[in-house]
Amino acid sequence: MSNIAIEFKDISKNYGEVTVLDKINLKIDQNKTTALVGESGSGKTTLLEIVNGLSVPTSGKVEIYGEKIDYDDLPSLRKKMGYAVQGAGLFPHMTVYENITVMAKLDGWDDEVIEKRAKHIIGLVDLHEELLDRFPHKLSGGQQQRVSLCRAMMLNPLLLLLDEPFSALDPITKSYIHDEFLKLQKAESRTILMVTHDMEEAIKLADNIVVLKSGKIVQSDSTDVLMDDPANEYVADLVIKQKD
Q1: Residue 72, pLDDT score
Q2: pLDDT of residue 126
Q3: Average pLDDT for consecutive 10-residue bins of the chain (244 residues)?
Q4: How far is CA 137 from the centre of its chain?
Q5: What pTM did the predictor assign?
Q6: Quick one: pLDDT at residue 64?
Q7: Is-contact 239 199, C-beta < 8 A?
Q8: What is the pLDDT of residue 196?
Q9: What is the spatial distance between Cα 127 and Cα 2, in angstroms, rounded to a whole number?
């Protein structure tokens, strides 16, 4: 079996005269965390959105576990994915428990199975059970982000997509959530593709880092290789800032 979870083949994305992605060729390793890093407008979020069908490439194709994306059957595709975004994106009218379990209920899971799975992942991210009956606005930012991760993990997806999920957190809370994230990945290893503009976060959380600039890949390597041997001055500047 191939160890490639996602493969981008000559992916381009244009909005009118603006090229957001320019002939991207990239392989995402299975059961590893890969960070897409770049400044605003680099194309990293668009690349992530192409994976779950929120954006359709102008040209090229994407294969997920060897199968080309079927844009006529996106619900089936998205059942295989968890998705967490900046600011948690929780449903305000649902309790914490309802937010976490909503996808499983929609998918027709048995209540007993739902409860068992929910209890397991709640424990993994250290979310206190007394919070389960509260509504999102009653939670801190860190608590909301834990709920968002639980919801993304509920269906035990092969692939987890994260779009700057920790960017709104204060530094102390972010550090703690990072530790919980690493514990989560160790407990339930899966393919994770995350977008971040924070190089320090990428270095801490990711096995592999892809640096994008103006819609093109500047460097794609393991975190250690990228740190020790940056491909050019642009990447070197990103790395140096973390070593200072």
Answers
A1: 87
A2: 81
A3: 88 95 96 94 93 93 92 84 76 94 92 94 86 93 86 89 83 83 84 92 95 96 94 89 62
A4: 23
A5: 0.88
A6: 93
A7: yes
A8: 92
A9: 35
CB 242 within 8 A of CB 233: no
**Residue 192, token pair as written in the block:** 């994770």
pLDDT, residue 82, reads 86
Q: Which residues pair with 24 in a beta bridge?
A: 11
Greatest CA span in the chain, whole angstroms?
A: 55
Cα gap 118→155, rounded to integer Å: 10
Kindly tell me the burial class for residue 220, based on how many C-beta atoms sit within 10 Å of its own C-beta (0-12, 13-18, 19 or more): buried
In this structure, what token pair is assigned to residue 212?
A: 């994008």
With 0-12 / 13-18 / 19 or more C-beta atoms within 10 angstroms meaning exposed / middle / buried, residue 68 is exposed
SS3 sequence of the chain: CCCEEEEEEEEEEEECCEEEEEEEEEEEECCCEEEEECCCCCCHHHHHHHHCCCCCCCEEEEEECCEECCCCCHHHHHCCEEEEECCCCCCCCCCHHHHHHHHHHHCCCCHHHHHHHHHHHHHHCCCCHHHCCCCHHHCCHHHHHHHHHHHHHCCCCCEEEEECCCCCCCHHHHHHHHHHHHHHHHHCCCEEEEEECCHHHHHHHCCEEEEEECCEEEEEEEHHHHHHCCCCHHHHHHHHHHHC
Nearest to residue 174, comparing CAs of 131, 206, 141, 136?
141
Residue ranges per structural domain of the chain:
81-156
Asked whether 30 and 202 are in contact (CB, 8 A), the reply is: no
pLDDT at 142: 82
